[in-house]
């Protein structure tokens, strides 16, 4: 149940080097795990006993058109590189994750979503073209009408190497968003709040206290955010620069951000995290409820980048993340049941975040018309077995409700769950494509070997 292990490493800095490496690996019968910034939780970018190709230094911005907002970059360019390129000209990436570190290759391979997934879909919906390298050495330019386009986006790096991504950025008129905080007391209020705001807002996200039970289960703090239009305050306009978006180096102007994980470390046990979640709920209720304020795009989106080395809070054994996606009508009941399961196991999530989603057209998508709950769980030698068992129990609850899962946030999924949650025709199509594009199975991460390949095996041979 360990995640990752020893591997060879290569770090190409150009597309030519990447092509040479893939050709060499194929000739040597080596298996290859592609890796971007390694931000996926779990084993998605691990290649135990294989060659890991780190794509992060193949990262040139190839073209930027400030009048149309079209950006073309190599796969190793990050979300940070994208917003830094666009912001001064009034453009922001259409979809960003909770950290700006992911590469475009990693973002496309997982088809990442943002806090606006319910409004604009995942990143794949904003990709205008992909340049890919197939394992046989062929390079191709794919536009959305190409039969491979919707499969390679969401393919976990298992069908082809992404070399370049062309992305449509979105117009912004200000360097800040207007944010409204809404404190909710339970699941009823939480879902009522999402119902109220998921039509005409730009971003919507909730932190939820997974320790709270009974009548308080589902309490939390919702953040609703709007883009500014029209009469923009001069200070907000002035923040449309890279410097204007930088996260402050100190918390409250005093505590260096680099120290924050050390301040949190004494709370890294269930009791401490119960206290932190309780304090967050009450500070949200007393200080943020129904308050509107301006916040830079960077501060709103990249909260965890405020706490460098936040993962050290989970030292020495680390954490896993688990994200379930549940259809709209079932989500409230399922999330309540999931929190109850976690409390029964004595393993409530230390950090739980809810988002709203919509369906999309990508082959191995996690998107559906519903809600997701992403949860962090600390791993210890003492809880490891029970934690995995608990995740499997949660998976069965999610599955019975027609739920889905997200490979970027997974360390525990079982092949039978993978085989059950995707429509069979999607898995068969993926299997067919893989047998055509990579018949020797050169591309294979640990995640693929653990959860996807055995699920494909269960389907039988492609027609
Ligand atoms: C703090 C934090 C917050 C996050 N918030 C969100 C969020 O809000 N929404 C969300 O959707 N995700 C979120 N994530 C997850 C993250 O966005 C995804 O895991 C993303 O895929 C990471 O990109 P990466 O470059 O680090 O890729 P890696 O994690 O290194 O790899 C991810 C996948 O991409 C493949 N890959 C990498 N490069 C290429 C390439 N050039 N060609 C083909 N395949 C390739 C790998 O094989 C692997 O399957 C978050 C992660 C963290 C750590």
Task: Describe what you observe in this structure.
The chain has 16 helices and 22 strands. With 463 residues, the chain is α+β, with helices and mostly antiparallel strands. It has a domain at 176-415: Alpha-Beta Plaits, CATH 3.30.70. The strands form six sheets. Strands 17-12-14-13-19-20-18-21 form an eight-stranded antiparallel beta sheet. Strand 15 and strand 16 form a beta hairpin. Helix 12 (331-345) packs antiparallel against helix 13. The chain is globular, with a radius of gyration of 22 Å. The mean pLDDT is 96. The site of flavin-adenine dinucleotide (FAD) has 32 residues, from strand 2, helix 3 and strand 10.
How would you briefly describe this protein structure?
By secondary structure, the chain is an alpha+beta fold.
Secondary-structure map with pairings?
Layout lengths: L7 E3 L4 H13 L4 E4 L5 E2 L8 E4 L6 E5 L4 E5 L4 H8 L4 E2 L11 H7 L6 H4 L6 E7 L5 E4 L6 H4 L8 E8 L1 E2 L4 E9 L2 H11 L5 E6 L11 E8 L6 H5 L3 H4 L4 E2 L3 E2 L3 H5 L5 H19 L2 E6 H5 L17 E9 L3 H15 L5 E7 L12 E9 L5 H17 L3 E2 L3 E2 L4 H7 L2 H14 L8 H14 L4
Parallel strand pairs: 1-4, 2-4, 3-22
Antiparallel strand pairs: 5-6, 6-10, 7-11, 8-9, 8-10, 12-14, 12-17, 13-14, 13-19, 15-16, 18-20, 18-21, 19-20
Helix pairs in contact: 12-13, 14-16
The protein binds flavin-adenine dinucleotide.
The site of flavin-adenine dinucleotide (FAD) has 32 residues, from β2, α3 and β10.
């Amino acid at each position: 149940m360990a995640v990752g292990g020893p591997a060879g490493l290569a770090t190409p800095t150009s597309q030519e080097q990447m092509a040479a490496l893939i050709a060499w690996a194929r000739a040597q019968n080596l298996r290859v795990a592609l890796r971007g910034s390694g931000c996926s939780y779990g084993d998605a970018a691990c290649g135990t006993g294989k060659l890991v190709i780190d794509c992060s230094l193949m990262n040139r911005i190839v073209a930027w058109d400030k009048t149309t907002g079209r950006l073309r970059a190599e796969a190793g360019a990050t979300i940070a590189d994208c917003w830094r390129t666009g912001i001064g000209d009034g453009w922001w990436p259409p979809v960003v994750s909770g950290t700006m570190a992911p590469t475009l290759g990693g973002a496309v391979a997982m088809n990442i979503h943002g806090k606006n997934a319910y409004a604009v879909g995942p990143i794949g919906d904003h990709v205008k073209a992909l340049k890919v390298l197939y394992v046989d050495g062929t390079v191709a330019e794919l536009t959305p009408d190409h039969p491979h386009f919707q499969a390679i986006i969401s393919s976990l790096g298992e069908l082809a190497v992404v070399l370049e991504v062309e992305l449509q950025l979105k117009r912004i008129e200000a360097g800040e968003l207007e944010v409204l905080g809404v404190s909710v007391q339970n699941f009823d209020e939480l879902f009522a709040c999402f119902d109220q705001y998921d039509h005409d807002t730009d971003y919507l996200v909730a932190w939820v206290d997974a320790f709270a039970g009974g009548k308080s289960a589902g309490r939390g703090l919702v953040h609703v955010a709007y883009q500014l239009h029209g009469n923009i305050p001069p200070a907000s306009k002035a923040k449309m620069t890279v410097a204007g978006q930088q996260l402050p180096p100190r918390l409250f102007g005093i505590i260096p951000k680099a120290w924050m994980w050390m301040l949190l470390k004494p709370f890294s046990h269930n009791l401490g995290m119960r206290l932190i979640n309780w304090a967050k709920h009450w500070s949200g209720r007393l200080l943020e409820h129904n308050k509107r304020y301006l916040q830079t795009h960077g501060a709103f989106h990249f909260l965890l980048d405020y706490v460098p080395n936040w993962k050290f809070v989970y030292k020495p054994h680390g954490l896993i993340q688990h994200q379930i996606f549940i259809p709209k009508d079932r989500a409230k009941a399922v999330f309540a049941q999931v929190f109850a399961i976690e409390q029964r196991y004595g393993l409530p999530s230390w950090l739980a975040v809810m988002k709203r989603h919509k369906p999309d057209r990508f082959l191995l998508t996690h998107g559906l018309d519903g809600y997701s709950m992403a949860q962090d769980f600390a791993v210890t030698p003492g809880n490891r077995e029970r934690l995995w068992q608990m995740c499997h129990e949660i998976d069965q609850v999610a599955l019975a409700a027609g739920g889905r899962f997200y490979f970027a946030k997974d360390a525990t999924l079982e092949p039978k769950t993978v085989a059950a949650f995707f429509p069979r025709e999607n898995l068969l199509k993926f299997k067919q494509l893989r047998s055509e594009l990579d018949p020797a199975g050169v591309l294979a991460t640990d995640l693929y070997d653990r959860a996807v390949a055995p699920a494909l095996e269960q389907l039988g041979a492609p027609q």
